[in-house]
Amino acid sequence: MIECRDLTKKYNDLFAVDRLTLRLEQGDVYGFIGPNGSGKTTTMRMLATLLNPSWGEATVCGYSIYTGAKQIRRLIGYMPDFFGVYDDMKVTEYLEFFAAAYRIDGPARRRRVEQVLDYVDLGYKRDALVTSLSRGMTQRLGLARTLLHDPQVLLLDEPASGLDPRARIEMRELIKRLRRENKTIMVSSHILPELADICNKIGIIERGKLIWNGTVEAAIQAVRGKSVFTVAVLHDRNAEAAERLRLFPEVESVTPDPKTHALDVRLRDGYEDGSFIPERLLQAGFRLRLFKEKEVNIEDVFMRITKGITS
Ligand SMILES: Nc1ncnc2c1ncn2[C@@H]1O[C@H](COP(=O)(O)OP(=O)(O)OP(=O)(O)O)[C@@H](O)[C@H]1O
């Protein structure tokens, strides 16, 4: 649905987006993550055909951004990070104005406006002035506006920025709902954990370069690399157990977790099955309190992937 090859935008000496290559299939929810100024907005604006690249190619729904702008604009919904709302306009008037721009006319326009208002749960604000809405409501109105023409592909630029925790959760739920409808969604954020549970793929961009691109599971796997198990024994004998575990030929390292004091046992390459750990510890007279495969927190993944670049 979205494909970029070497997509590049240069401003004088600055590569705002530097040879970006990625591919999204229908139904993908792509978390586009990067710090401020890393090139997220520039990428989305190019895909939305609002900004010309310096070079490179991109297609959306099979249309080139160079020659198919008209078709692309009909098929996508772009929600910018900042969008203007007009003074003295009611919520319904605002949406009807944009519906008219999409040539939704007659009674269908009213119906569609009510549908999208319901979708984002703003029906009860239909007669409020847009300027009176909270930040969370304004973002939901922005999403409603983006959905008016029922686009297949959504480009959502930091939809949760500036929202309080509750409004963030509501925005996330809305994106999950759109995902269930099989929309293809590219959603940006500078916070990875915010996106981890709603995306199936992530891309991490830094200074215009995509430094990671793949499935969420692949990112976790790449960081974890090897099998790691969390182990704890009873009676304050973790240090003793650590000594014993270090003697096992399958074990590469044993490190106590500073927070929980449980032991992280990392296996050597080629070993995945850690079931020998509880067996041998029991044989050695230890009593097990905890044994499980270590969970990798998505925040750790982000820190590990970006570490080499930012430091
Ligand atoms: N019109 C422009 N002229 C010159 N430089 C620009 C222009 N637009 C963007 N840039 C630069 O390109 C880089 C990428 O900007 P961009 O807005 O795409 O980043 P971003 O990841 O969306 O950041 P944010 O999270 O702050 O929105 C930044 O260094 C920015 O200053």
Give a quick rundown of the structure:
InterPro entries: AAA+_ATPase, ABC_transporter-like_ATP-bd, P-loop_NTPase. With 311 residues, the protein is α/β, with parallel strands linked by helices.
Structure description:
This is ABC transporter ATP-binding protein. Residues 2-232 form the ABC transporter domain. Belongs to the ABC transporter superfamily. GO terms for molecular function: ATP binding; ATP hydrolysis activity. Pfam families: ABC_tran. This protein has 311 residues and is of the alpha/beta class. It folds into 2 domains: 2-222, Rossmann fold, CATH 3.40.50; 226-294, Alpha-Beta Plaits (2-Layer Sandwich). Helix content is 36%, strand content 27%. The strands form 3 sheets. It has a 6-stranded mixed beta sheet with strand order 6-7-8-3-9-10, sandwiched between helices. Helix 6 (165-180) links the parallel strand 7 and strand 8. The longest helix is centred in the middle third of the chain and has 16 residues, at 165-180. It is elongated. The protein starts with a strand and ends with a helix. The model has no long low-confidence stretch (mean pLDDT 88). Adenosine-5'-triphosphate binds at residues 11, 14, 16, 34, 36-42, 81, 190. Adenosine-5'-triphosphate binds next to strand 2 and helix 1.
